[in-house]
Design brief:
The chain has 14 helices and twelve strands. With 324 residues, it is α/β, with parallel strands linked by helices. Helix 7 crosses helix 12 and helix 10 crosses helix 13. The two termini are 13 Å apart. This is Glycosyl transferase, group 1 family protein.
């Protein structure tokens, strides 16, 4: 029986849930024994990881740039280490290379047995330090999005899901959503996050994020919004928001950036914003053209099927098996 020690920032971190813990049921059903330790703000768990490492076949380190001395000890005690990441963690928040973070990143990559990167932009960076780098997109359990939810006929609901750190992108386009609503009259914004937003010119339904609530609220909407800025940091994002919308069976309007752009173009699952007023034009277009809406909706659903976690698990299982 294979034994895996999963080290993440912690269960509250979205990357921990989306790229590691989401596979819990599949690991159990495949008779893989695993244990999870969250490292953020839990120094004792670093010691636990060191003590436990020799008894596990694989250490799966997700995203965290752990201290060099810790990783060095972990490397000595571990049989195999897989490093997984889904953000441009070698950059500062302004999108510029951070020498401090890059040193940590390069050391971890160079001394891991396998690297799983969330998109090609990230893969290309990791590949400079370790040729055993594989593209593993962020996937999700699409079965959880297949619930039946009645849509509110009084509104054409636009939905955004995110966090406080990414809410700035939504806030920037709210004036454009207000202008669109001035013409269409029946728009409403569903904001699924830990941030409360207000507007005088478009109704906003603020929903505190929880894992169970998100499925119902996404499914109840008509369009998914994915605004981003055109930066290297955004290019490191893995389009999870886009995949959530697609799994809920709703077309997407997204900034023309990174993996968001690639997926929407490839599957024709929505419309891309190249200039500011496109937000208004695209919402109006999909609101007034039911046939076009249905085409994008169908394409979005087709796209989501290819990013189900079961598809990803098979790919990862083969890569790990070959490496072992």
């Amino acid at each position: 029986m294979t034994k895996i020690l999963i080290l993440t920032k912690g269960v509250q971190a979205s990357s921990s849930r989306e790229r590691a813990l989401v596979y819990s049921d599949l690991l159990r059903s495949n008779k893989v024994l695993y244990q999870h330790l969250g490292l953020s703000k839990r120094p004792l768990n670093y010691i636990k990881a060191i003590i436990k490492a020799p008894s596990f076949d694989i250490i799966f380190l997700q995203r965290k740039l752990v201290p060099r001395f810790f990783f060095k000890i972990l490397r000595i005690l571990s049989k195999k280490i897989i490093y997984d990441f889904d953000d441009a963690i070698f950059l500062d928040s302004n999108g510029e290379i951070s020498n401090h973070k890059l040193k940590k990143f390069s050391y971890i990559c160079s001394n891991s047995d396998l690297i799983f990167a969330g998109n090609d932009f990230l893969k290309n960076h990791a590949n400079k330090f370790n040729k055993n780098t594989f593209l593993i997109p962020t996937c999700l359990d699409i079965s959880k999005y297949k619930l039946s939810v009645r849509k509110d006929k009084n509104f054409f609901d636009l939905v955004w899901i995110g966090s406080k750190s990414t809410s700035k992108y939504l806030i920037e386009i709210i004036p454009l959503l207000e202008r669109a609503n001035k013409k269409l009259k029946d728009l409403r914004l569903i904001n699924i996050s830990n941030v409360v937003l207000k507007s005088k010119f478009i109704p906003i339904k603020n929903i505190l994020w929880s894992e169970q609530v998100q499925y119902k609220e996404l499914k109840s909407a008509k369009l998914g919004l994915a605004p981003l800025d055109d930066s290297n940091w955004s290019k490191g994002k893995c389009a999870f928001k886009v995949l959530q919308y697609a799994s809920a069976g709703i077309p997407i309007i997204s900034s023309n950036v990174g993996v968001n752009s690639i997926l929407i173009k490839q599957f024709d699952a929505g419309l891309l914003v190249k200039q500011e007023n496109d937000w208004i034009k695209h919402i109006q277009k999909l609101r007034s053209n039911p046939n076009l809406y249905k085409i994008y909706k169908k394409n979005a659903e087709r796209m989501s099927n290819l990013f189900d976690l079961r598809v990803n698990y098979k790919k990862m299982k083969k890569i790990v098996k070959d490496a072992m």
